[in-house]
Every structure is written in structure tokens, then in C-alpha cells.
Amino acid sequence: MKQTLVLKVNPSKPSIKKIQVAAGIIRKGGLVAFPTETVYGLGADALNPDAVLALFKAKNRPLDNPPIVHIENINTVYELTEYVPPKAVLLMKQFWPGPLTLIFHRSKRVPDVTVAGLETVAIRMPQHAVALALIRASGCAIAAPSANLAGKPSPTSAKHVLADLDGRIDMVLDGGSTRIGVESTVLDLSLDPPIVLRPGGTPVEALRKVLGDVQLHPFVVAEKEVLVEKARSPGMRYRHYAPNAKVILVEGQLQAVIAKIKELIGSYRREGVKVGVLATDETIANYEADVVKSLGSRFNLTAIAQNLFRLLREFDYEGVDVVIAEGVPIEGLGLAVMNRLRKASGYNILKVV
Ligand code: TXA
Ligand code: MG
């Protein structure tokens, strides 16, 4: 066990002194969790193989699932990659800093462990003053997966980071709750048309406005387990975002969804099972279960994305056995939300009409 230092920082104007402490830890090969606009990341010097290995260990992350490398200056992309395609230049201009991760052909400077032995590297520039200041002060690119134990919902506050990683990492910069709440969109530009490997904070609709045709990897919209080829998208193979409770996702026409969920609540409660419901503002009054929570309004997918991971964790704190979740519209951030909910359920999906 290590002592994990927690420092509160102003999310828009972090104290240089505190950032310097964190940067000192990164430079020495240590692990620092920090806020980004999407979720908290667990950072290590991306070019220090020992530090990156420690990062995998702290998270219990399988070694074949590479982290995202975070930068604060576009010039760094040219140092870490072999080739920057024109479409990437366009996207970097339009979407960075922001919740978009691009896959590039890597340069040999990037250690094997950082890319899990792949020939490509995932890079993004986060839109958060704390993250950018930390990268700048550290003087290196920072490899940062989400700061949760592998398989758990990503952390949207320092409290979530500590729930998983207290005593396993050197430091947490606590900059409050994150703004977007789901991770960045991961886009592979090596194919034409480009392919979204993970839907996230940058809506696919926004990418299509700039690039024209953009495809979704079958896994992005999967409603059941899909076998994926190894190299394309390592993270896809693992169960993710799962609370301890069993999750059931009910999708379809709204009135039918409500009726189905009420029926499920009834049968679980007759068996003495503690039931949680993940509802929305428009539907919450319909449910009487042990714990009922609202993601937000069905007309505000931004709010729903922001609340998702926090609520999944809260069901665990409440000790429910089953969480029954409503599907939300698959548009804008709703695509990322539904992708996470389907994975969290282990594809335990009920379709109703
Ligand atoms: O918003 C985010 O992206 C957050 C914050 C901290 O920046 N980070 C994050 O990292 O979600 P992580 O490690 O939890 O997810 C990285 C995803 C995984 O699905 C991984 O498989 C994929 O990016 N990835 C990383 N390198 C890749 C590569 N070379 N090719 C394809 N996918 C890659
Ligand atoms: Mg993650």
C-alpha cells in the first residue's frame, strides 16, 4: 500500500505549486490521477516503460489493452507518430483540445508497453486546464487510461478514483466532477472511410460534418457479444463499466419499456431481490423499487451522459442486487451512453415493442 496524496485544485485555474508537485511525481515515474473534460485519467510518463507498466498494474488492466497518450501541444503528435494523414490535421484543428482520440501509426520512440505491442498509438489533447497544465509541467506526453480498476465504471470524480485506487497510486488531483461524463470518441483514420472504435464525447454526427462518411465499428452498436479481430480495437473485448449488481437493459418504445420494467420489479421483489431502477425524469414516477434514480431528462442526452457512471456506482453503494435500466435515444451522446449501458449489462438486453 502506498499513501495516496489528494490535492484539491481549482478546475479552471489550478495552483502552479500543486501542479508542480504532481509533475514531479510523473517525472519520477509515479502515477497521478487527474481530471479531464470526459472522465478522470490515471497518468504516467508515456515514454517511461516502467511507469506505464506500473500503471497497468495499479488498474489490474490486461497488458494487451493500450492507454491513450495525452498531449498539450500538436507538435508532439509529430514526435510520437510516423505519419499524420490530412484528415487528422483537419480533425485536430476542429476538435482539439476535446474528447476525440485519434489512432496514428506510431514512431519507434513510443515504448512497446505503451501501445501494447501495436504498430499504432492513440493520442488526444484533453480540454481541461488541470490536465493541460499537468502535461506541460511534466514536460512529457502522459499515458492515461481512465482512473478506475479495470472493468469498473469510469470515474467522474476524485471520490470514484479513490474508491478504486486509494493506496495503489501516488496522487489524485481533485478538480471536482467532470463535465462530459463519458470517455472520448476513439477514431481510426487508417481505413477509408474512417471508423469509430468507441463512441464518446464527440458525437459521430459532428465527425460526419467534417469528414463526410464515417462508419461505426460493429462493436459500437452491438447488442450482443461480437468477436473482434485482435489488433483493431483491443479494449472492445473486455467487460466494462459494470457495477457489482447484475444489470438488465430494457430497450424499445417508451410505454412498453415502462410496463416491462414494472413487471420485472414485481417479479424480482417477490423473490426478495433488492432492485434498483435507472430511469429518466419523464418516467421515474412510474417505478416503485428499492432504489430508483434518474439519469436526467430524455431530451437532455448531455446531462444523461454526465450522470451515467456516477449513478452506476451509486447503485453499488446502495447494495442493490439488480439494476434495471431504461434505454435512451441513440443519437448524439446517446450512442455513447447506450454503448456503455449495453456493455455494463453484459448484453443482457430486453427488446420490447
Ligand atoms: O476520455 C478518455 O478517453 C479517457 C480520459 C482519461 O482521457 N481515457 C480513456 O482511456 O478512456 P482508456 O484507456 O480507458 O480507453 C482507451 C481506449 C481503449 O478502448 C483502448 O483499447 C483504445 O482506447 N486504444 C488505445 N490505443 C489504441 C490503439 N492503438 N488502437 C485502437 N484502440 C486503442
Ligand atoms: Mg477505461
Report on this structure.
- With 353 residues, the chain is α/β, with parallel strands linked by helices.
- The protein folds into two domains: 178 residues, DHBP synthase (Alpha-Beta Complex); 107 residues, Threonylcarbamoyl-AMP synthase, C-terminal domain (Rossmann fold, 3-Layer(aba) Sandwich), CATH 3.40.50.
- The protein contains ten helices and 17 strands.
- The strands form two sheets. Strands 1, 2, 3, 4, 5, 6, 7, 8, 9, 10, 11 and 12 form a twelve-stranded mixed beta sheet that branches. A five-stranded parallel beta sheet has the order 15-14-16-13-17, with helices on both faces.
- β10 and β11 form a beta hairpin.
- α1 packs across α5.
- Bound molecules: threonylcarbamoyladenylate (TXA) and magnesium ion.
Main sheet attributes: strand count, strand direction, barrel closure: 12 strands, mixed
Number of domains: 2
| Average pLDDT over all residues | 95
Element pattern in H and E:
EHEEHEHEHEEHEHEEEHEEHEEHEHE
Low-confidence stretches: none
* Highest-level CATH class of the largest domain: Alpha Beta
The CATH topology of the largest domain is given as DHBP synthase
The number of E-state strands comes to 17
Q: Write the CATH architecture name of the largest domain.
A: Alpha-Beta Complex
Quickly count the helices: 10
Measured by DSSP, the beta-strand proportion falls in 15-25%
Residues in helices, as a percent range = 25-40%
Ligands, deduplicated: threonylcarbamoyladenylate, magnesium ion
The rough form would be described as: globular
State the secondary-structure class: alpha/beta
